[in-house]
Amino acid sequence: MPYPSDLKYTKDHEWIRLGDADAQVGITDYAQKQLGDVVYLELPQVGRALKKGEVFGTIESVKAVSELYSPVDGEVTGINAALVQNPEAVNKDPHGSWMISIKVNGGQQDLIDAAAYTDLTK
Which end of the chain is more exposed for a tag (fewer CB within 10 A), N or C? Predict the structure, then answer.
């Protein structure tokens, strides 16, 4: 699966869609393939301040429990409650399954583009 060019990526396998006000964050296709069938998702409270690299939640699959890391500094402005109810959607559409929305206030300098992320996951 090619990685969407409208997203930025982290070396921890999260993606971020930067918007005018808020950004959406999720995990990449590579990450969901490594996890296998996702069965549970734990996300933060709205209003929580996050620093880049800080754990904002956990994702559990039949194989493992993994931490989710914030790709930027910011404040959580929303969570995808539908995804919490149906976490398996991450396996079907990882780049369309956002987990949190965040008001970004820094930390974007280490984000990589789709080409660089594709090279990272080869």
Answer: C
